[in-house]
TrEMBL record:
One of its GO terms (molecular function) is DNA binding. PANTHER family: BLR3139 PROTEIN (PTHR30419:SF31), HTH-TYPE TRANSCRIPTIONAL REGULATOR YBHD (PTHR30419). CDD domains: PBP2_LTTR_like_3 (cd08436). The lineage of its organism: Bacteria, Pseudomonadati, Pseudomonadota, Alphaproteobacteria, Hyphomicrobiales. Pfam families: HTH_1, LysR_substrate. InterPro entries: HTH-type_LysR_regulators, LysR_HTH_N, LysR_subst-bd, WH-like_DNA-bd_sf, WH_DNA-bd_sf. Residues 1-58 form the HTH lysR-type domain. Keywords: DNA-binding, Transcription, Transcription regulation. Belongs to the LysR transcriptional regulatory family. This is LysR family transcriptional regulator. GO terms for cellular component: cytosol. Coiled coil: none annotated. It comes from Martelella endophytica.
Amino acid sequence: MELRQLRYFVAAARAQHFTSAANKLNIVQSALSSAIKALEDEFETKLFIRSTRQVRLTAAGKAMLEKAELVLAACEELKETVASVESGERGKLSIGTVQGLPAFLDLPELLARFHREYPLVDVRLCQGSPDHLIEKLRKGLLDLAFLQIAEPPADIVTECVACEELVAIHHRTHALAGRDGVSLAELAAFSFVDFEPGWGPRLLIDEAFHMAGIARRIAFEVNDLDSLLELVAHGLGVALVPETVARGWQERIGTCRLADDEICWELFVAASAQSMDRNQPLESAPRSFMKLLPIETEENAPAAIA
């Protein structure tokens, strides 16, 4: 039994005339008659009582019509569902992000925009360390992840979505108050408040001090941005944070730029390389979300995740 045969059967049952049904289907009557005959042979029963003027359904034909219409309606619904998933209108989107996501990327606002444009997409969000998020990407538990990563593994592809200079922050009455700039060597004289290893810009900052051959003392380690800022605001240490973050706390903390080469906190969106394979392209929902991101690529350079 084929869907085509069911469509022909339903058309004939509604028209109660083979010629009229064939005309509506834009096929020859012999093709419709053959399809009906094939159904009758398969079910071993007559579906129509034929006369010269019209055809009427048998009891078996009436029972079949009810079910055939349900099957065809389900097939149309299936087509619409598949088409909407392919277009990104439906589907699932799983996103991971590091805790203490930089303020220069407003993920809640992006998710709100995406929900307004694709209200039928089921969006899931989770937080974790970069290593944890990468492992979830590998296992297919996440479509995309926002994280800081120096050298992505071979099986992970990334695109830079934001980059912002880090500035030094301190208590408003700190010795650095009023300074326009400060070197890493000068900063190392003060106790630091920083993220735990693997969180936020910690790796970036550690690398900068290591490359400069400067040791520093970290008095407090946290895993969220608010705690870091509160500790600095209470005079318990200095820290390095994105400029946008510092501006938001300018009434409670002081800031000064680095006199050395600037340290930029880069935020990346990552996906598994397998999901980017030509034979297994990125799903439509993640692809639609990617279009909302401010991907930072060189002029005319194609994005790796698309």
